[in-house]
């Protein structure tokens, strides 16, 4: 099956978690909005009010299915490409972990836009500094400490044991994103999460991921995405 992924053409954003799963699986997919009038096509699909229109990108067309929400898409892809356990309990567990990552990603975004996405960063610098300090003091240790503990508890190479799942690919993206947005803070914190750093390296070395990262399919981090680097927040 050839998939059609609909997401913004110039940012990694929430669509990147889906791209990583598709790339690792060697799946045939079209990143629709990155060609021609793909963005217009994406917007038209969201404007419909019949059937099951998606609320916002990313969404994935798989045959007759149109699936929205990152974690929901990964739940679907994981079962079909060997990136999730086969048991119902295992699938739900990995889905639960992905939803936890989604919470972390949202809090990462809110460090630079604590008053809301409709305002420019320049309009909320002071609240952003306060939110970022709290994020690194309280939230990062809680989230990443939790996932570090899972690695140690399962005693395997990956978060759920010996086999990779899409949540490992997503954790790779989280580590990469935090390194980009907060290089100084992340460098100081990484000794607390040696297992996650090793997981990041293990994922980066996978043949399909390695090829993807060096290709033009991988959009560079930038200040329009979720993870943004502002020097005044990385002290």
Oligomer: single chain
Using only C-alpha atoms, the radius of gyration works out to: 18 Å
The biggest beta sheet reads:
4 strands, mixed
The count of DSSP E runs of length 2 or more, i.e. the number of strands, is 4
Low-pLDDT residue intervals, each spanning 5 or more residues = none
Which structural class do the helices and strands define? Answer: alpha+beta
- Approximately how much helix is present in the residues? 40-55%
Main sheet: strand order: 2-1-3-4
Number of helices: 9
Mean pLDDT: 96
Name given to the CATH architecture of the domain at 88-205? Up-down Bundle
Give structural notes.
34% of the residues are buried. The model has no long low-confidence stretch (mean pLDDT 96). The protein has a 4-stranded mixed beta sheet with strand order 2-1-3-4, sandwiched between helices. The longest helix has 30 residues. The N and C termini lie far apart (47 Å). Helix content is 54%, strand content 7%. Helix 3 runs antiparallel to helix 4. The protein has 235 residues and is an alpha+beta fold. It has a domain of 118 residues: Glutathione S-transferase Yfyf (Class Pi), Chain A, domain 2 (Up-down Bundle).
């Amino acid at each position: 099956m050839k998939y059609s992924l609909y997401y913004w053409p110039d940012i990694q954003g929430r669509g990147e978690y889906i791209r990583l799963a598709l790339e690792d699986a060697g799946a045939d997919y079209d990143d629709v909005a990155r060609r021609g009038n793909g963005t217009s096509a994406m917007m038209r699909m969201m404007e419909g009010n019949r059937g099951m229109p998606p609320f916002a990108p990313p969404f994935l067309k798989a045959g007759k299915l149109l699936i929205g929400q990152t974690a929901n898409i990964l739940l679907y892809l994981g079962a079909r490409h060997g990136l999730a356990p086969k048991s119902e309990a295992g699938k739900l567990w990995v889905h639960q972990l992905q939803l936890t990552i989604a919470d972390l990603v949202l809090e990462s975004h809110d460090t630079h836009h604590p008053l809301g996405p409709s305002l420019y960063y320049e309009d909320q610098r002071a609240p952003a500094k306060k939110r970022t300090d709290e994020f690194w003091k309280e939230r990062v240790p809680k989230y990443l400490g939790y996932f570090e503990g899972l690695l140690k508890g399962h005693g395997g190479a990956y978060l759920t044991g010996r086999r990779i799942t899409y949540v490992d690919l997503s954790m790779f993206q989280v580590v990469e994103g935090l390194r980009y947005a907060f290089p100084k803070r992340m460098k100081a914190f990484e000794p607390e999460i040696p297992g996650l750093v090793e997981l990041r390296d293990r994922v980066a070395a996978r043949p399909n991921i390695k090829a993807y990262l060096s290709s033009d399919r991988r959009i560079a981090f930038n200040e329009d995405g979720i993870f943004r680097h502002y020097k005044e927040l990385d002290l």
